[in-house]
């Protein structure tokens, strides 16, 4: 017999109560926008060397040299996108720019449509083809420059590494089409520079020689923020965001937690925001920061698992299975790839692509990677779950996780039973020894007969 729970009716009084409860979370803030990770500040703390490199590339335009492609790379939360937006908004008024985040794209054609959308154009249907989409991108850029009487255009493609997950497409050919577009615009005395922002350098991907020769080596690497950098960033924002300024010791704790991950300033800002919501108007303490860190781990886990592609989700499940079976906290790339291939067979991605997906999981904060020496086998990468295995398993799916636990319990029971028998009389060992002796005896008889 099923028992149904009665649902609470949503009335005006209920709405007022919910509004009152929600407003408690904002009592601590004077201006919460400064704790929005997407907020573009009036000034950038640090990143002087990276800014200088980009400015040198931009300044070369005045001397007639336009770098066709600039590859910006570094770990998540290292300020790549923020710095590029800041420079384009504040430095050059003789050029136009378009910032496109490709994170939600799943195919090369989807990437082209997202570029068209940010340029203010209607999307094309897949039947139109990628060539027509790139051609429309070029025509639109040309039209924008003609209307504004400008000569320079910067096309910023954030999360660019997503295009390499399109197994059916040809990412290298897509880049080649964009570079060819740049050359055609240059013939009309119009200059296009493509800036790619990702976790890895553009040259690290499997590109055609014709592409490599065109993009050159114009790269800007962003080192992870140090705890000192993060402290300066969150202190500047806290002064404007909170009614009661947190103590420096609290901010130092927040910076330390973010730096211990991989120098993610975005995570530190999120920690402060959640801690402020937890405090209910009190001055933030270190305990609030710790509670916020635990809360964000669960939220991040839901986001990573929920937005994972089919192959990335399979890799996460594979890692969980290996760690559970081995009762270990770590596993290595080769073990992950072997189990992944056993699962998918011919549908498996290449080893290199799986490594890229593992890197994305590291950058998302789900995994921690460490290079290890394997003696004669060379060096390898060891992966550890940052979040407890049980939480990850439950986030994948309760039914799936409970099935894994039951299978593990069954295997442990069988192994324990075998262990008892072995201890009592080494039954299994004796059986295997007898089997080898029988095989050896049969072989000897065969030789004698011959």
From TrEMBL:
Binding-site positions, ATP: 78-82, 225, 237
Tell me the GO molecular function terms. Answer: ATP binding
Q: Which InterPro entries match?
A: ATPase_AAA_core (IPR003959), Cdc6_C (IPR015163), Cdc6_lid (IPR055237), ORC1/CDC6 (IPR050311), Orc1/Cdc6_arc (IPR014277), P-loop_NTPase (IPR027417), WH-like_DNA-bd_sf (IPR036388), WH_DNA-bd_sf (IPR036390)
SUPFAM superfamilies, alphabetically?
P-loop containing nucleoside triphosphate hydrolases, Winged helix' DNA-binding domain
Keywords of the record: ATP-binding, DNA replication, Nucleotide-binding
CDD domains per record: Cdc6_C
What does the function comment of this entry state? Involved in regulation of DNA replication.
* Name of the featured protein: ORC1-type DNA replication protein
Q: What lineage does the source organism belong to?
A: Archaea, Nitrososphaerota, Marine Group I
């Amino acid at each position: 017999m099923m028992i149904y729970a009665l649902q609470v009716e949503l009335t005006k009084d209920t709405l007022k109560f919910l509004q009152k409860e929600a407003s408690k979370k904002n009592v601590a803030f004077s201006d919460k926008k400064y704790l929005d990770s997407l907020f573009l500040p009036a000034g950038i703390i640090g990143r002087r060397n990276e800014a200088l490199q980009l400015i040198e590339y931009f300044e070369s335009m005045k001397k007639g040299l336009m770098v066709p492609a600039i590859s910006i790379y570094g770990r998540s939360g290292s300020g790549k996108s923020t710095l590029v937006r800041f420079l384009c908004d504040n430095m050059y008024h003789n050029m136009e720019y378009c910032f496109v985040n490709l994170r939600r794209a799943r195919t090369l054609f989807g990437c082209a449509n997202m570029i068209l959308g940010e340029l203010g154009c209607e999307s094309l249907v897949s039947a139109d083809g990628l060539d027509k989409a790139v051609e429309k991108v070029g025509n639109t850029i040309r039209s924008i420059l003609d209307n504004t009487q400008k000569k320079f255009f910067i096309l910023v493609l954030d999360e660019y590494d997503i295009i390499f997950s399109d197994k059916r497409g040809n990412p290298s050919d897509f880049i080649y089409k964009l570079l060819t577009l740049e050359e055609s615009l240059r013939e009309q005395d119009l200059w296009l520079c493509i800036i790619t922002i990702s976790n890895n350098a553009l040259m690290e991907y499997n590109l055609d020689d014709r592409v490599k020769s065109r993009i050159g080596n114009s790269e800007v690497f962003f080192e992870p923020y140090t705890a000192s950098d993060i402290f300066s960033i969150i202190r500047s924002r806290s002064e404007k965001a909170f009614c009661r300024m947190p103590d420096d010791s609290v901010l130092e704790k927040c910076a330390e937690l973010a730096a211990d991950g991989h120098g993610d300033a975005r995570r530190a800002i999120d920690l402060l925001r959640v801690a402020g919501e937890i405090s209910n108007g009190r001055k933030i303490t270190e305990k609030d920061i710790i509670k916020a860190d635990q809360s964000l781990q669960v939220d991040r886990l839901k986001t990573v698992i929920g937005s994972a592609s089919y192959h990335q989700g399979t890799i996460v499940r594979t890692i969980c299975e290996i760690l559970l079976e081995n009762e270990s906290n770590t596993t290595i790339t080769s073990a992950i790839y072997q189990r992944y291939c056993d699962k998918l067979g011919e549908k498996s991605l290449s080893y290199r692509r799986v490594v890229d997906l593992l890197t994305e999981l590291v950058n998302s904060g789900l995994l921690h990677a460490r290079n290890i020496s394997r003696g004669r086998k060379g060096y390898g990468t060891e992966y550890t779950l940052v979040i407890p295995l049980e939480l990850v398993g439950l986030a994948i799916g309760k039914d799936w996780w409970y099935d894994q636990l039951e299978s593990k319990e069954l295997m442990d029971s069988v192994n324990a039973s075998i262990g008892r028998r072995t201890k009592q009389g080494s039954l299994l060992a004796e059986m295997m020894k007898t089997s080898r002796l029988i095989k050896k005896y049969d072989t000897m008889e065969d030789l004698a007969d011959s």
